Amino acid sequence: MADVIIMDACSLLAFIYNEDGADIVKGILKQAEVGDSVALINKVNLYEVYYDLERSSGKQQAEEFYDTFLKLPIEVINGISDEVMREASRMKATYRMSLADSIALGEALTRNAAVLTADHHEFGIVEQNESIAFIWIR
């Protein structure tokens, strides 16, 4: 069975901007391409990336990213199931974090998946207290 990996916005941004940790993201995507893992991102986390690019570089850059993104071996989770909503709500109520980050954690909890991230600030305390696996890109 392939490993399931939930990507958050910062892991995808690291890949886009070729920041520290981009090599780890590339490795995960290569695994997904050959079926050794399944890379998922919730549309809310994808929204964060698109928004960041549009704000910093303009709509054209955001659209170019999205066209490229659609060719990557990353499956987009459209919507939020009731189970993810409950788990994400628990994460947000227990730990101070963004809505999008809580959704990534909800997806990970309900899918028994690891979270691919660089966001120690938001997720460090979660790693200490919850049964969620994290793959730190830096």
Précis, in short:
The protein has about 140 residues and is an alpha/beta fold.
Could you tell me how far the N terminus lies from the C terminus, measured between alpha carbons in angstroms? 26 Å
DSSP strand tally: 5
- Give the oligomeric state: single chain
CATH superfamily: 5'-nuclease
How are the strands of the biggest sheet laid out side by side? 3-2-1-4-5
| CATH fold field value | Rossmann fold
Please, how many helices? 7
Helix content: 55-70%
Mind telling me the C-alpha Rg? 14 Å
Order of helices and strands: EHHEHHEHHEHE
Mean pLDDT score, rounded? 97
What is the CATH class designation? Alpha Beta
The largest sheet is: 5 strands, parallel
Keywords:
138 residues; alpha/beta; Rossmann fold; five-stranded parallel sheet; 17% strand; globular
Q: In words, what does this structure look like?
A:
With 138 residues, the protein is an alpha/beta fold. It has a single domain (7-136), classed as Rossmann fold. Helix content is 60%, strand content 17%. It is built from 7 helices and 5 strands, in the order E-H-H-E-H-H-E-H-H-E-H-E. It has helices at 9-17, 22-33, 43-57, 59-69, 82-94, 99-111, 120-129; strands at 3-7, 37-42, 74-77, 114-117, 133-136. The protein has a 5-stranded parallel β-sheet, sandwiched between helices. Strand 4, helix 7 (120-129) and strand 5 form a beta-alpha-beta unit. Helix 1 (9-17) crosses helix 3 (43-57), helix 3 (43-57) runs antiparallel to helix 4 and helix 5 (82-94) packs across helix 6. The chain is globular and about 40 Å long. It starts with a strand and ends with a strand. The mean pLDDT is 97.
